[in-house]
Design a protein that fits this description.
Layout (H helix, E strand, L loop, with lengths): L1 H16 L4 H12 L5 H11 L5 H29 L1 H6 L17 H15 L3 E2 L5 E3 H4 L19 E3 L4 E3 L5 H10 L3 E10 L11 E11 L4 H16 L5 E5 L5 E10 L16 E10 L1 H6 L8 E8 H9 L12 H4 L3
Parallel strand pairs: 1-5
Antiparallel strand pairs: 2-4, 3-4, 5-6, 6-10, 7-8, 8-9, 9-10
Helix pairs in contact: 1-4, 3-4, 6-9, 6-11
Bound molecules: phenylalanine.
């Protein structure tokens, strides 16, 4: 019997060695371990029957080869499951938790920009785009700011190459001229976009921020039209009636030029820290397009006129949501962004 046990072991190990796939593996395991007909199971049963003086020795031997064969089978299984695609494919762990998808959302600036675009589309404006790397010509010259003009100092500029006179656009206004050159008059357009200033950053200044330029050119356009469109825009964004006032403001490309203020929405005009106790918030520089700008744009200033405005999109987002540090908007900090 001892010899028989050793023979079974040898044979089993040899057969296990030759296993090629999971089917072979199942067959061999059954051949030895099947409860009823497995060779090893039978052998273990036989050992129970032998006389008590032989039992300890044969029993120990039988158990030893059982564990040898089991080990060999385990080892083979891990080998074949690595190269047997069927095993991998067939294996589905139904107890695994289903992956939860985290849905992102648009950046708050993009959200407000989209809202503004909808409002302007409903007023018959088209949405336009322009280059962020702009020529000195469009950024300044055509906007009635010649080389020698002190108004150039109003906007700290990133100059790219002195030779080609390229700049990172300091405002979205250059698209006014580009749009009029391309589409002529009459024209209603808004231009949301990123602009750059060579500024020292702090809670209310960043080197990169967003504006939304607006332009309406037609016959007999008046300041009343300008105020009406501004009020429509602001009440659309703040979802309530807003009170506005115009103050004179200087920009070389508009005449007359204004600063449009809104009555502070936080304190309703009583005075608080957000409006610096004045009750008013400066929000929208605007004015009637200067005839020189129309001339550069190829528009007959005797027939057509119009208004333009430069909404500080980033500033508007800060006011809408009560954000007190502009730098948060570009920080990419998820703790901040997840709140919108
Ligand atoms: N482009 C100006 C700026 O960025 C804003 C402006 C636009 C003023 C249009 C008047 C009309 O400061």
């Amino acid at each position: 019997m001892e010899l028989n046990i050793k023979k079974i072991k040898e044979q089993a190990l040899k057969e296990i060695e030759e296993i090629k796939n999971s089917q072979d593996w199942e067959d061999i395991r059954n051949k030895y371990f099947s409860r009823k007909s497995g060779e090893l199971s039978k052998l273990l049963k036989d050992v129970k029957e032998v006389s008590s003086d032989l039992k300890p020795k044969l029993g120990a031997l039988a158990n030893e080869i059982k564990s040898d064969i089991t080990n060999a089978l385990d080892k083979k299984k891990s080998e074949i499951s690595q190269d047997d695609p069927k095993v991998e494919k067939d294996f589905i762990d139904v107890t695994l938790e289903v992956e939860k998808y985290k849905l992102g959302h648009l950046h708050p600036v993009t959200q407000v920009q989209t809202e503004l675009e909808e409002i302007f589309k409903s007023l018959g404006f088209v949405i336009l785009d322009g280059p962020e790397i702009e020529s000195d010509y469009y950024n300044f010259e055509t906007l009635n700011i010649p080389d020698w003009h002190p108004a150039r100092d109003m906007q700290d500029t990133f100059f790219i190459e002195a030779k080609d006179k390229l700049v990172l656009r300091t405002h979205t206004s250059p698209v006014q001229v580009r749009a009029m050159q391309k589409y002529g008059a009459p024209l209603r357009c808004v231009v949301p976009g990123r602009v750059f200033r060579n500024e020292a950053t702090d809670a209310s200044h960043d080197h990169t921020f967003y504006q939304l330029e607006g332009l309406m050119i037609g016959e007999n356009i008046s300041i009343t039209n300008l105020v009406a469109v501004m009020k429509e825009l602001l009440s659309g964004i703040f979802k309530r009636e807003v009170t506005v006032r115009l103050r004179p403001g200087y920009f070389p490309f508009v005449e007359p030029g204004f600063e449009l203020d809104i009555k502070c929405l936080i304190c309703a005009g009583k005075g608080c820290s957000v409006c610096k106790q004045t009750g008013w918030l400066e929000l929208l520089p605007c004015g009637m397009v200067h005839p020189n700008v129309l001339k550069y744009s190829g528009i007959d200033s005797k027939k057509y006129n119009g208004f333009a405005f430069g909404l500080g999109l980033t500033r508007l987002v800060m006011m809408k949501y009560g954000i007190d540090d502009i730098r948060l908007l570009q920080s990419g900090d998820m703790r901040f962004l997840n709140q919108f």
